[in-house]
Amino acid sequence: MKTILVTGASGFIANHLIQSLAQDMSVRVIAVSRDCSGWLKDFKNVSYIFADIAHMNVPLTSEVYHLAGAFGSKNIIGNPYETMNQNIVMTRNLIDQFRKTKTKIVFSSSIEVDFIPRYPSSDARWAYAESKRTCEDLLSHSCIPYSIARLSHVYGPGMTHDTVIRSLIQRSLSTKAFHIAHGSDMRSFLYIDDAVDALKTIMSQGSENFYEVGSKRSHTILQVAEIIGNLSNKLVYEIGQTEPVEKRLCRPESLESLGWFSRTSLKEGIKKTFLWYKENE
User: What is the CA radius of gyration of the chain?
Assistant: First the structure.
């Protein structure tokens, strides 16, 4: 029986990945999380271990999806040093323990790596992306099989951090009207089911390279807010944009060459996500 290790099990993306992997009864999933928060579900072929991946002796498996990481704007801005340290130490521990077995690791990175300032920055908000880039470098010099998934603004039911879509949905459910800033900023959003399919494709077919995981189509924050406003029957007010427009777009051509394509439209994905939050929060 093939065994698969998933780190960061209580996180949003890892949780959905575990549910998908568990549908195949010919595999055994070992899911590691520092705590039992989140919405972990019981499956006959999934075992949960509650421990810190940075310091534990990791069970040796056939495949590794490394999704654990310090995340969230409050954590990053509040303690950038600890954000970087945790992400790097966790990844190094995994690499050190899987060097002998040459087990493939699919590492969950971020599209933000593409937009790190060219010169060293003291801005704390880049700590997360910098740590991810350092982890990518560690893997590239580790002499073990790996692939890197640079995820781009993944959203869907069960999001656990203050992402743009989650924040806008929550505001739409709690107020008569809501306003947005930076409405002209552009992002490539990706629904969670498509992200899970991408990770599995990268594991089975990916080479020692990085893959940008996101939609080819980009949307403004205002477009996202208007979709949510229509679903909630709420008015959306845009505050005048005083800062330069940010365009953080995704180029998934390398991933598409493996046969993966984003299948969920933004409207469809936001509707599913909105209905989930309306019923569960």
Answer: 19
Instruction: Tell me the residue type at 222.
Output: L
Per-residue pLDDT tens listing for the chain (281 residues): 899 999 999 899 999 999 999 999 999 999 999 877 666 788 999 999 999 999 999 999 999 999 998 876 666 777 888 888 999 999 999 999 999 899 999 999 999 998 887 766 677 778 888 999 999 999 999 999 999 999 999 999 998 777 889 989 988 888 777 778 778 888 999 999 999 999 999 999 999 999 999 999 999 999 999 999 999 988 777 766 656 556 778 999 999 999 999 999 999 999 999 999 999 87
Could you give the C-alpha distances from 101 to 61, 203, 224, in angstroms and in order?
Answer: 9, 16, 45
Annotate 206-242 with DSSP letters as a single string: --SSEEEES-SS-EEHHHHHHHHHHHHT-EEEEPPP-
- The 3-state DSSP composition of the chain as helix, strand, coil percent (nearest 5) reads 40, 20, 40
Predicted TM-score (pTM) of the model is: 0.92
State how far the Cα of 47 lies from the Cα of 33, in Å rounded to an integer.
11
Distance between CA 130 and CA 153 in Å, rounded? 17
Evaluated on CA atoms 187, 192, 194, 195, the torsion sign reads positive
